[in-house]
Amino acid sequence: MDNATPMLRQYLEIKKQYPGTILFFRLGDFYEMFNEDALIGSRELEITLTARQKESANPIPMCGVPYHAAPGYISRLVNKGYRVAICEQTEAPAKGVKLVRREVVRVITPGTAIDSQLVDPKETIYLAAVSNDRDKYGIALLDLSTGGFEATQIAGQDSLAKVNELLGNYAPREIIFPMSAQQLASVFSGNSLAQGTLPSDHSATSAPLLQGSSTPVDDLFFHLADSRSNLVAHFGTKDLSAFGVDEKDEAVRAAGACLRYARETQKAAIEHISDLKYFETNDCLVLDAVTLRNLEIFDSRTGDKRLTLFGVIDETVTGMGSRLLRVWFARPSIKRSEIQTRLAAISELIEPMLRQKVRFLLKEVADLERLTGKINLATATARDLLALNRSLKQTPEINAGLADAASLLLQVLTENIFELPEIREYIDRAIADEPPVSLADGGTIRDGFNAELDELRSISRSGKQTIASFEEREKERTGIGNLKVRFNNVFGYYIEITKGNLANAPDDYERKQTLANAERFTTPELKEWESKVLGAEEQIIKIEAEQFNLIRLRIREETKRLQATARALATLDTLCALAEVASKRDLVCPVLHDSDEIEIKNGRHPVVEASLNSEFIPNDMYLNNSTDRLLIITGANMGGKSTVLRQIALIQILAQVGSFVPATSAKLPILDRIWTRVGASDDLASGRSTFMVEMTETAAILHNATPRSLILLDEIGRGTSTFDGLSIAWAVAEYIHNSPEHSAKTLFATHYHELTELAENLSGAKNYQLTATEKDGDVVFLHKLQKGKASKSYGIAVGKLAGLPPKIIERAKEVLEKLEKYELAVFADEKPAGLGKAAAQRVASQVSLFAIANEGVVDQLRALNVESLSETGAKEILAEMKRRIV
């Protein structure tokens, strides 16, 4: 760019300071993008690509978006994993100044997005930082919009796998890590828009890790001493012992990097990040990403979020309440006292009058958590302050409604809901009832709040009235009825006269501009009033901006009380929502105990029940760690095995969240983890087959489950040949039952009926079946769980229901009859009577199913009286046998 103009050279200098970002460069009423940024922006935003200096040998690619519509375009880029740097004019244009000063005022990244166009009110947006030293890892998680800040440290065997598991649970939008950390780079590089290394083919982020993007940053971000001193300075403490990380170097490095990245991208005070919480990965009921997916906690296989556990239970009326409930679902409690206090509060809120009053008031509460964040980040508008004020005005009535609360948690919440009357009164005095969207439009500050501003407004109003009177006077003086006094930003105020009336223009009119059909003039009197009006209006905008910033700073002083109020109201909203759903869906309070039994009476699957047009058939369940720790569940296809498995887990999760549960009664222990091996899918990116994925997930369960875990196994071994799969399933079941350190309570659904023999040999194994029957040749699913083992799977009946052609159904029945006739009882001590040596050898050597299915033809051949056959008859029989051979 040897021929670059001063403006383009300015662009290049700023771009050099922000590599790896798309630079939105403010030029007048547009944000412009140049060079590679323009190529990416044009493609991703579907806007026209043009060029600057088109006639030169090297035209410069260029595209742009209107500044007033920029948030929508920025959100599209950020949601695709890009980082956008906003470059504004930081001085007003003036005569003689050819190039105004410009600076980047904010960098918007996937993990630091706070604008309403970029964040779902019900979703927490996490920025994660990951550091490591050999097998020791630090993870920090920051929700910049609310100031929530957490950190942990993981070390030892399989530590990287545990890091991925944790990140899968939190699902951060963006992960930052040291640029030199090759091990982390290899893990995260699949979705990295690395600084200074945007993809050469301009491709967008594909298959992002954990639905987020990753950003390698300078190693200095993770420098231990700097991280420690930055954290101490930010929190104003002597050391970090109060936060539990003083001896956790990797956690300190990650937290320091997270804080620095947030500060450097926002270029604003981040004082709302007022605390750092250290947590251990096992201080909750652990639900890894696989389990969250298999149990459809947040996402369903259909994509309909309403058909998930969270979708059914979430009756919150505020965004911050919904986010808190999501946290409770992602990390259910293992603290019995905490769960019991939530259950006690819900029991009190079940009372309709109290619950409905509180929920009515909460509906008027805006997202106080994010409003407080915006105030600290200096992005809150006047309308945001009015929303804050409206929310605070609900607090006195909410506290009054809870004044007689008996439960400890509700009492604690009222102590933390600050009414802040001085802030409410301050906003009432300061902000107009209907402020404009932009400060530049004027009218944000209420009359009477600032004397200087009131005086300037008086001058401006009187000046405009004088100019209006001036127009009427000039019409009378000149006799020109269509004379107009108008204004624009370029020429200020002017008198406009059409060409046909120019002869009547007075001599004291000074020509200002010539148009095709009119002439524009001014006069000394008009210039004088223009100077007063425009000077006043310019000062008004300036003073309003100054006053508004002071108002925000005053409110920012109350950050801690605002955050405490927001947390209390979010918790209250969550508890009311759980009480609401308990009332609507006939849920009961679970009984938590210190023993190991799971005892559920008439349990129901909350999501299936909510989606049914008919009555849900409930089922009982009993498990313990001794006599009933391995339940082998057989039954018909579509009989409800998977539903029963999942509903037990969902009832346990709801209980440890602190919610009522769908049952007539439930006595439950506190579990440490729920493991699931459900369904089948390839992992093509890693080159793993369906069966390999199944075995990998099963191995993780077998290595890590404890007696305090719950395991759900659905159709283990179905991804390989019959006897291979059956053997693996048998061995897995035995291992779980017999291993002292991994003997978890286990529900094992299977179509391998041979596994039911385990109950005859293992003391803790029991057989259960989902019942079904046949009526007039059709299967009838009863969906009832009973003790015992199913005799068949009714797979052909299900095929018939699915619409398989009748010929296929009939042929399948024939093959099934033969397979059942010659099937070998693999685990019996002796071969079944009547099975010939040849047939037994064929089955034992795992001969193909087709060979067994052809046994009917062999039987017919054996029965033939060859001597009595004619040539023609023999040919007909051979032809018919040939047709029947598979």
Roughly how much helix do the residues carry, as a percent range? 40-55%
- Report the end-to-end length measured between terminal Cα atoms: 74 Å
**Rg (C-alpha, Å):** 36 Å
Low-confidence stretches: 190-210, 682-686, 824-850
Strand ordering within the main sheet? 3-4-2-1-5-6
**Please, what is the average pLDDT?**
87
Outline type:
elongated
As an assembly, this protein is single chain
Structural class: alpha/beta
Major sheet: 6 strands, mixed
Layout of secondary structure:
Elements: H1 6-17, E1 22-27, E2 30-34, H2 35-45, E3 50-52, E4 60-66, H3 70-79, E5 84-89, E6 102-108, E7 127-133, E8 136-143, E9 148-155, H4 159-170, E10 174-178, H5 182-188, E11 213-217, H6 224-235, H7 249-266, E12 277-278, H8 289-294, H9 309-313, H10 319-330, H11 336-349, H12 352-362, H13 368-376, H14 382-392, H15 395-401, H16 408-416, H17 421-430, H18 451-478, E13 484-488, E14 492-498, E15 510-514, E16 518-522, H19 524-556, H20 559-584, E17 591-592, E18 598-603, H21 606-611, E19 619-623, E20 630-635, H22 641-657, E21 665-668, E22 673-677, H23 690-704, E23 709-714, H24 722-738, E24 745-749, H25 758-761, E25 765-775, E26 778-787, H26 795-802, H27 806-822, H28 837-844, H29 849-853, H30 855-863, H31 871-884
Parallel strand pairs: 1-5, 7-10, 9-12, 10-11, 17-21, 20-24, 20-25, 22-23, 23-24
Antiparallel strand pairs: 1-2, 2-4, 3-4, 5-6, 7-8, 8-9, 13-14, 14-16, 15-16, 18-19, 18-21, 25-26
Helix pairs in contact: 6-7, 10-20, 11-20, 12-15, 12-20, 13-20, 14-17, 16-20, 18-19, 26-27
